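Sample entry follows:

:::
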Amino acid sequence: MTGPTTPRQRGRRLKDRLPVRLRHHWKPGAALGIGLAAMVFFLGDARISPYVTSASRVEGDPITEDVRGTVDLYDTSVPHSIQLTYKQTDFDKMMKEFKENGTKDYIEADLVVDGVYLNDVGIRLKGNSTLSSLRGNRGNRGMPGGMPGVGRGGAGFPQGGPAGADGPAGGQGAAGGQGRGQGQQPGGAGAGGAGGAAGTGAGPGGGGPGGAGGGFGGMVQYDLSADKPEELPWLVKIDEYVEGRAYQGEREISLRPGSNAQVPLNEALSLSLTDKSGQKAERYAFTQVKVNDRPSVARLMVEAPDTDYADDIADGNGVLYKAQASGSFEYRGDDPSEYEDSFKQLNKKGSQDLEPVMKLIKWASEASDEEFARELHKYVDVESLARYVASQNLLLNFDDIAGPGKNYLLWYD
């Protein structure tokens, strides 16, 4: 006689183990999974590039500590002084890397400006052709006045800059691009096709090869040496190691080169004349500079185009782009990352992007002669462009938009 048997329990089916909500709504989830799989299969090797279309005027890198100082940094009616102190080992390493690779990295230093102490600022070498003597003349020390000018058929028409209000001026140049076609022009960069929306490109020494007679115009070449760091061109970055810090609203100060008691008076004159012409120019002042225990020397300090410089243009209602010396005015497609070596966005990062510059370059590269002449006013403020070109020719400026250092800015309104 056998006893009662216990019924055998079956294991739970897979679908019974899933949450009730998922069982009720499995179709949308499955469709999403299939769609993602299809995108990976068909678009797996495609690059997706984000574009920012917001019109926000809010800057994402605010100043949180603004050191006021004792006197206005660029007040030319009072004497100024700057002292830089850094570790010699850091300087030697920086110079070694520059000579071998051409890299210009920051090193940490302490700064005393007009008696005000600022610890942990960043300093690096600034310039391109200016620094050629430091690399055994392997850099570009300038071009003769008969260099091929980049102008439309040699007539000096530039490719221009984005449409908008008067573009910025200053030692870095102004909106624009290299010209169309090659033209052999006396004065090279001057007559050959400097272009821009407005501004001056008074670079190292201010002048350069140009003028009807060619030659080197007002270009000054300094015989620089690592043994005389007080004569080197420096970029002092106030917030390199202390985020959000500025000095009188300035995050950067540019110290122009000088040797054997020479100072670039022609650059100061060029900036002054540009400002008096109604175009925007960097502020400047002369200062006494001392580096570590080296002798004091007279130097020219100039406002560096940066985020705050951009905010001063048209009440900051625009975007400022700086051309990179390592880049080119060449259309490379619609991927913004392809232009990182050619242009640097100075303000409104995160709310604006490089799309205006990319559109400009694409048009300038693809437009026929007829389209270029007919549509130029759509991309460039032609009046300010003409004013910029005329100014650079009169100043015999070697380091403008058509110069070897690609020294210019683009302003998008």
